[in-house]
Amino acid sequence: MSEWQPKILAILCNWCSYAGADLAGVSRMQYPPNIRVVRIPCSGRVDPLFIMKSLQSGFDGVLVSGCHPGDCHYISGNFIARRKFAVLKPLLEFIGIEPDRVQFSWISAGEGERFATVVTKVTEDIRKLGPSTRLVNKL
Amino acid sequence: MKMIDTNDLQKAIKELLADSKVDLFLGWEKGTLPLSATPLFITGGDDAEKAVFDITCGNNLSIYFTKDRKQYADSKVGIAVKGCDARSLVLNILEKQIDRENVVIVGVPCHGVLDKKKVLAKTGCREVLDLIDEGDKVTLKGKGYELSVDRSEILSSSCLACIYPDAQEYDVFIGEARAEIPNENRLKEIKEIEALSSTERWELTRTEYEKCIRCYACRNVCPSCYCNVCFVDQNDPGWIGNTCEFTDTMIFHVIRNLHVAGRCVECGACERACPMDINLLLLNRKVAMEVKDRFGDIAGLDINGKPAMVDFKEDEKQDFIMG
Known about the structure:
Helices cover about 40% and strands about 15% of the residues of chain A. With about 140 residues, chain A is an alpha/beta fold. In chain A, strand 3, helix 3 and strand 4 form a beta-alpha-beta unit. Chain A is globular. Chain B is built from twelve helices and nine strands. In chain B, strand 7 (about 135-140) and strand 8 form a beta hairpin. The longest helix of chain B is centred in the C-terminal third of the chain and has 15 residues, at about 280-295. The mean pLDDT of chain B is about 90. Classes of the chains: A alpha/beta (about 140), B alpha/beta (about 325). The interface of A and B includes residues 90, 95 and 97 of A.
């Protein structure tokens, strides 16, 4: 069997991060092929349930990315999202989920290079952690 | 410890009803079993004489406004509240579930309520026939035994970590309302767990939450949980399975905690209702601590404020976001 590769879910906002990912692609930047992208209208749309559900379904990590604070297409979606993540992340750490499994970042439509760097870093972090075992439904 | 004078409470209720300030008063009466008081609905003067407040009055009566709100939509309701109940009431007002004008809040001085599971552990599951509250000591009487225990040994864990025992928002207060009281035990358990490694914390969570039988008593009794359709009951999309499979259970608890983030007043109703004795409040308290540290918000204290999770400031700490 070939070497284990992490599976990472990238939840990207339509207006900034998804366009950033697009830019990284058309600029032919190299980044690990471990992410599966889900496009959402705004990072404010991300329910912590999505993150929990993806961990349960066997994703080794989740990356959520939206517009930089102040740049949200819907004015304040990412501020609301930030409060949700600010509570979710310490809570997950507290119950014993490895902190690096769930990561957040802000990537604008012009930051193709940054997108590649972020994905590389997240993939490396999760590769170090190994396959996800906690909270995975093995049934 | 200054206990409440029940006569003062009854007098206040009678006055409110006599002056037509309220159509209905929600209080407690002595239960048919000695360990639990029963909610009392007072509409006439005589019923007011049944009203009591003591260590057994654990019920958070504000849930009658959220779980069954249509019933009281057009009437003026008086309600007796402990510190935590007052906070959930304020939260319900902020969330537009009740009109402040339609409710008369009567605060009662609270010195904690008991946890039946702790009492039964003390008596070795022997039936308790009488309970005498003497302040620092509580005497439990049953067939062929009499037991004197420290009050702190049988108090609900939410009360042991309480910092607002009395209502901060009220119209009438029976006695004198205390403001915030110091409590060094509040975050002790959290700090201890935070010092452990990630693997140890996971083991701890696992052993605790594996007990859960998904009866949803915690959700049903929670004054802040009042969605018409709870996410665990939804079947299109069916987010989580309905069995006791551990990951499903864990997701239920984590998401429920996040749904009440910045809204949980730590009344401990969930923990007292839990048949499996799960340390439910621990996660709630952790979330409340984060909310306080990051957003400076305490649920249900400020009647002119906004619940933390629907509010934001532009320049908040974002250390958890990749640089």
